[in-house]
């Protein structure tokens, strides 16, 4: 018999002689003898008392195959899959924990042997992950080259950008001076125009107010009294139709009258509006009377349009042939049509617009150069690894949609969350550095929760052949956890295989 087969046969035979639940690594301690010494040296017991369902050793080492000792462990051999240890309380508890069913040998439950199937799936997954790591490692090499190129470009470009920015400072100052001068001229032209419009509007308002004042001042003494106001048929009355003298007093001074200046300042707007409302109501009542009190919908809309017209433009309708003098006042619209600007004015506006555009273009370009300089200078302050493999991830964001939310990770920048159909994002933390070098990132000082702390996110990094955010959860209030895969986290598979083979 070949030596290898002989050794394997002896190992199998030796293992078969071991008490149930003993791992091969402890086989020497359980060699059949008259007595068994507890592994912690606390006692010696007859060998036959091993696995007798009574805990004799303080460390539970005499009951590897039962649940008698709370601190004991049971070894699942799990041939064709992965061996592992169970705590003793899970032995013969009616639940199949070992894939070979060896933890439930008392007959209370029948456990199928699923080790072959699980082992096959495990080996397939292991091969898949091996392929992912190999692919990721190759992509990582490209990321290293990209990181080096980025660093070289940024460092080489900074000096040139600073020279370009300094050279534009003079152009910016000149453009700003020209812009300010052009805007001063523009402001002066607009002020002349606005002052003219205001003067005309004030003059027209005064004319309209004077006209209405004269229709109310029946004795033509240059003052309006309470008695004259009471004589107006459009002055608001109480619900019972009586005159509200207290309300009228707001239109006159403490002496009980009002001159033209007081009228313009304190009364004109309100009295004019009451007059317009009265005209519109009379128009509606007339329409109702002519239609027998039944106004159709389209007719009602027409009446409303008339009322709107009265409110906007004053009374432009004749109410009745025998209308009173008050109702014949039809020039109360104090609006002034917009006066167009002259060609010379428009030239001033065009010059100001061009000056602003010139200044804005120069400033925008200088701001962009400043941003590039800042970005290049901050590049060296970030830990992208000694070989710069992590550098290409800066500015490259990954999204993950879960339920009603979309989570986003932008490495070395921030984490966000937003509703799927929403627009605004919630800041879940900005870059604070590596929590554990190149294996987990921390982001903090995000948007503060209601009555809670500022949001923060811990990002666990895994090897993957693509840059992708694969998991997002909230294990604590306003504390989030992401899982992110990237080739940058992949190690050399050849070195990894050597380490595992040695273990």
TrEMBL record:
UniProt KW keywords: Disulfide bond, Endoplasmic reticulum, Signal
Biased composition (Acidic residues): 316-329
All residue ranges annotated as the EF-hand domain in the record: 204-239
GO molecular function, one term: calcium ion binding
Signal peptide: 1-15
Region feature (Disordered): 165-196, 309-329
GO biological process: one example: N-glycan processing
InterPro entries: EF_Hand_1_Ca_BS, EF_hand_dom, Gtb1-like, LDL_receptor-like_sf, LDrepeatLR_classA_rpt, Man6P_isomerase_rcpt-bd_dom_sf, MRH_dom, PRKCSH
Occurrences of domain MRH (ranges): 395-492
Protein name per the record: Glucosidase 2 subunit beta
């Amino acid at each position: 018999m070949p030596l290898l087969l002989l050794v394997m046969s002896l190992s199998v035979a030796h293992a078969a002689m071991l008490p149930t639940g003993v791992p091969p690594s402890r086989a020497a301690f359980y060699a059949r003898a008259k007595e068994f010494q507890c592994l912690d040296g606390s006692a010696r017991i007859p060998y036959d008392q091993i696995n007798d369902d009574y805990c004799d050793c303080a460390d539970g080492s005499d009951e590897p195959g039962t649940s008698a000792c709370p601190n004991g462990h049971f070894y699942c051999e799990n041939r064709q899959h992965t061996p592992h240890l169970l705590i003793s309380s899970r032995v013969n508890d009616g639940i199949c924990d070992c894939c070979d069913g060896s933890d439930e040998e008392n007959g209370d439950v029948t456990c199928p042997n699923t080790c072959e199937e699980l082992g096959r799936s495990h080996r397939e997954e292991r091969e898949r992950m091996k392929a992912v790591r190999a692919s990721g490692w190759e992509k990582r090499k490209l990321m290293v080259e990209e990181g080096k190129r980025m660093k070289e470009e940024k460092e080489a470009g900074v000096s040139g950008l600073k020279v370009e920015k300094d050279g534009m400072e003079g152009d910016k100052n000149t453009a700003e001076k020209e812009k300010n001068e052009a805007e001063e001229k523009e402001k002066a032209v607009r002020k002349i125009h606005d002052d003219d419009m205001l003067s005309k509007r004030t003059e027209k308002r005064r004319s309209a107010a004077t006209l209405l004042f004269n229709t109310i001042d029946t004795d033509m003494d240059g003052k309006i009294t309470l008695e004259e106001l009471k004589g107006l048929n459009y002055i608001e009355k109480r619900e019972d139709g009586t005159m509200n003298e207290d309300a009228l007093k707001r239109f006159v001074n403490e002496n009980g009258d009002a001159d033209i200046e007081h009228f313009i300042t304190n009364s004109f707007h309100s009295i004019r509006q009451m007059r317009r409302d009265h005209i519109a109501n009379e128009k509606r009542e007339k329409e109702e009377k002519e239609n027998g009190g039944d106004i159709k919908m389209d007719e009602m809309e027409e009446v409303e349009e008339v009322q709107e017209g009265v409110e906007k433009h004053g009374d432009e309708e004749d109410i009745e042939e025998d209308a009173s003098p008050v109702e014949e006042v039809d020039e109360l619209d104090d609006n002034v049509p917009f006066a167009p600007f002259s060609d010379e004015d428009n030239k001033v506006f065009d010059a100001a617009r061009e000056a602003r555009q010139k200044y804005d273009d120069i400033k925008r370009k200088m701001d962009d150069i400043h941003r590039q300089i800042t970005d290049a200078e901050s590049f060296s302050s970030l830990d992208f690894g000694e070989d710069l493999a992590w550098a290409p991830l800066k500015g490259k964001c990954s999204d993950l949609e879960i339920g009603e939310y979309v989570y986003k990770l932008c490495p070395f920048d921030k984490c966000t969350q937003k509703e799927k159909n929403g627009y605004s994002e919630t800041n879940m933390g900005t870059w604070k550095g590596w929590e554990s070098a190149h294996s987990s990132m921390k982001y903090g000082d995000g948007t503060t929760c209601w009555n809670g702390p500022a949001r923060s996110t811990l990002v666990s990094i895994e090897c993957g052949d693509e840059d992708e955010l694969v998991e997002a959860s909230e294990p604590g209030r306003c504390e989030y956890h992401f899982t992110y895969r990237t080739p940058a986290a992949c190690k050399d598979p050849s070195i990894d295989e050597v380490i595992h083979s040695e273990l």
